[in-house]
Amino acid sequence: MNSNRFTRILIMICMLAVLLCAACSKSPVNGSETKFSESLLITESKQEIELPEITIVETVPSPTPTPTPEPQHILVSFTGDCTLAEAVAWNGSPDGFDAVVNGDYTYCFKNCAELFNNDDMTLVNFEGTITNATSYKVKEYVFGAPQEYTQMLTFAGIDAVNLANNHSADYYEQGLTDTENAMDSVGIKWSNQYSVATYEVRGVKIGMCGIDMVDGDTAATAHPLIDQLKEQGCNIIIVSCHWGIEKDYSPRDDQVITAHDLIDYGADIVVGHHPHRLQPIEKYNGKYIFYSLSNFCFGGNTGLSDPDSAIIQCEFIMDETNTYCVDYRLNVIPYSQTSKRPGNDYCPKPYEWGSEDYYRVMNRLNWAQEDE
To answer: Least crowded by CB within 10 Å, which of 29, 116, 222, 263?
Structure first.
């Protein structure tokens, strides 16, 4: 074999070897070479992408809006005289208050407790004392009850009492102080011609004070008390008035003049008692006056010459900021002071709707539900 032929064969072998090597590089032997190739491709691809500039914007949270208060509707129940005691002169009588109640503190108000417990506040005229004092005034009727009798009030859902009346000092100053302390001990608010009281419901502050015209108070007596309630930020102001003449069915001129003065001075409602009879409701300058709600649960007499009574519920409708009343709605519920006749069992019950008794109460109050 000559040298030229050998050279050509050698060149051909080399070319064949190159082709085989190239083919091997395109045929993966295992997954690692594939991964490596893909990695290279991905890296090259990433190098070709231009990332946009990132701008960091600082966000300021929006302030939480202050909720707008909803106008409140505050429901307050009113009744007349509540005397949870029998007259000293009748102590031990089998028909007297103590004997009939016989330690059952749920008895007297069982027919209205649900009503009182479901309103926003219940205010009554508490005519008498809660005291252990033994010295009392010489008068025809003297009323004193033990501390345990406050349980009748708390069971009934009575939240506040007026003590501006002609029986709150039957046991002198000691009896009045004892009564105030007794009310404080069970969380019942009290007010009179010397002190005011406040009671708050859903952010609405109710203020209370009273006058005793039987013992000489006048509208002027209430003016500084109303001023106090205004200064304390009260949104509703209630003035209780013990006034008038017993057994009258109509208010006297001094009651009317006083009531108008109190409304003009800032009272939202005036609630009267003492005549032991119902007297008409008056609407004066858009506000209500109850001249007399008579008795309600009255332990002072074993018999009743006129059992008619009533619970009046007033719905105070507040303005949009709950600062003052813009309207008033009444619901009159005729009641009897006793569940049986004749006599007095000290357990008030409602008159049947539409009955003769029901409409007699409405007529005496000069009221019809259609008036609302």
So the answer is: 29
